[in-house]
Design brief:
Elements (H helix, E strand, L loop, with lengths): L25 H15 L7 E5 L6 H12 L5 E5 L9 H9 L2 E19 L8 E8 L2 E8 L2 H8 L5 E6 L4 E8 L13 E2 L7 E11 H13 L4 H5 L11 H16 L3 E5 L1 E5 L6 H13 L5 E6 L8 H5 L1 E5 L5 H14 L4 H6 L1 H11 L2 H36 L1
Parallel strand pairs: 1-12, 1-13, 2-11, 7-8, 11-12
Antiparallel strand pairs: 3-4, 3-6, 3-9, 3-10, 4-5, 6-7
């Protein structure tokens, strides 16, 4: 991406000699800094922004810098308005918005880790069985259900092995053989590990970032497995399963329950809709209704390079409005040079091409075009030098052969 060097909205300069924030657009940067503080305070759910400006007026750069400064905690979804036609289903539209709502889940894993001292005789189709495990801190008897017996049989777990049991997931993993048995055989292709130092039973707290859409997809896949064969026949194999309204309500209720118990944090992210002037009036109204209905709705940025049209009145009524300024020739030149420095081009190479860069900037008023022209010219010069060197080498060989 042409904006990959941007990491913040505010003006900063790193030790490499180029700015890692947006150049110029001071009034727009102040507005985006306010939006950033709004998002971080989680007061942005359901709000929207209408970003208007001419082509090559740093609209994409402002959005990318906002995304980078917020971090991965807040999901970012970018979509073109041509993908949102009147035929787009409500499930598809909801999926786009729920993909931009992050959920930070607090996971608590209950683990048993230690050496197997003794165990019941394990057979298939058992209801339950018990094992005795020990660590450096003591021993503990663990009772497992019959499903875990399959893992014991597959991994051939026996006394003296060190295992890890995760009760929530129902998984059993053989880590290796206790190192006290390392002298048991002369030739042994076995991994020996020391006895765990902590308690046999311990809890592990972790954090996992997911989106509501990922939770929806996982639950829709599970529910689809229990459908009747008559219903499954009519579904194509590559067709995506969407969660129905009742399932979405259950998921939302569960997430709220986790949030109340401080086991989940909701982080509404950002949806960027480019070329919003191409949206139909019907789709614009549907988007507004989704933002009004959902308390977890993400922050929506409508981007357009044209003047707002009448059919977008409902969007404009509920949106902040920011207009970017058109960059002049010198500003385009400085933006292009800053990006080229970030890509590793030497300053002396760019100084040699100063007149060409100035000419391209004034004629095109497009930083992307200027950057591509500089790359083509520098690469072309390098190719000419390579051809010259190979030609000299060819002539030298001819003279050597003639001798």
């Amino acid at each position: 991406s042409i904006h990959s060097h941007l990491i913040s909205i505010e003006s900063t300069e790193n030790c490499l000699g180029y700015s890692d924030s947006i150049l110029y657009q001071n009034s727009a940067k102040k507005s985006f800094s306010f939006l950033k503080s709004l998002i971080l305070s989680k007061s942005h759910a359901g709000l929207s922004l209408f970003l208007n400006g001419e082509t090559s007026s740093s609209k994409s750069a402002l959005i990318y810098a906002l995304k980078q400064s917020l971090g991965d905690k807040y999901p970012f979804v970018e979509i073109s308005s041509t993908q949102l036609s009147s035929e787009t289903s409500n499930s598809n539209l909801l999926s786009i918005f729920r993909n931009a709502i992050g959920v930070r889940l607090r996971e608590v894993k209950e683990l048993y880790e230690g050496e197997v001292v003794s165990m019941d005789e394990i057979k298939k189709d058992m209801d339950s069985f018990s094992i005795l495990m020990r660590s450096a801190m003591g021993t503990k008897k663990v009772i497992l259900d019959g499903y875990s017996s399959l893992s014991f049989l597959e991994q051939r777990i026996k006394p003296g092995d060190i295992i890890l049991i995760e009760t929530g997931a129902g998984s059993v993993r053989r880590l290796g053989r206790c190192d006290s048995y390392s002298t048991e055989f002369d030739l042994e292709c076995e991994r020996y590990i020391p006895l765990p130092k902590g308690e046999v039973y311990h809890r592990q707290v972790g954090v996992k970032d997911v989106t509501l859409a990922e939770i929806d997809d996982a639950n829709a896949h599970i529910s689809s497995e229990f459908e009747t064969p008559e219903n499954i026949i009519y579904n194509e194999k590559n067709e995506k399963n969407f969660a129905n309204e009742s399932l979405l309500e259950e998921i939302d209720k569960t997430i709220r329950f986790y949030e109340a118990r401080e086991n989940a944090v909701i982080c509404p992210g950002i949806v960027v809709i480019k070329d919003c002037h191409l949206l139909s009036e019907n789709m614009a109204n549907r988007i507004v209704s989704v933002l009004d209905e959902k308390s977890w709705a993400p922050f929506v940025i409508f981007v357009s390079s044209r003047e707002p049209e009448n059919h977008l009145d409902k969007i404009l009524e509920r949106s902040f409005f920011i207009e970017t300024e058109c960059n002049e020739g010198n500003e385009i030149k400085n933006i292009a040079i800053n990006r080229l420095k970030a890509e590793g081009f030497a300053e002396n190479e760019l100084l040699k091409m100063d007149e060409d860069i100035q000419k391209w900037s004034e004629n095109s008023r497009n930083a992307k075009f200027v950057i591509q022209m500089v790359k083509l010219k520098i690469n072309g010069m390098n190719e000419e030098m390579d051809c010259l060197k190979s030609g000299k080498e060819f002539i030298r060989r001819l003279f050597e052969q003639s001798k």
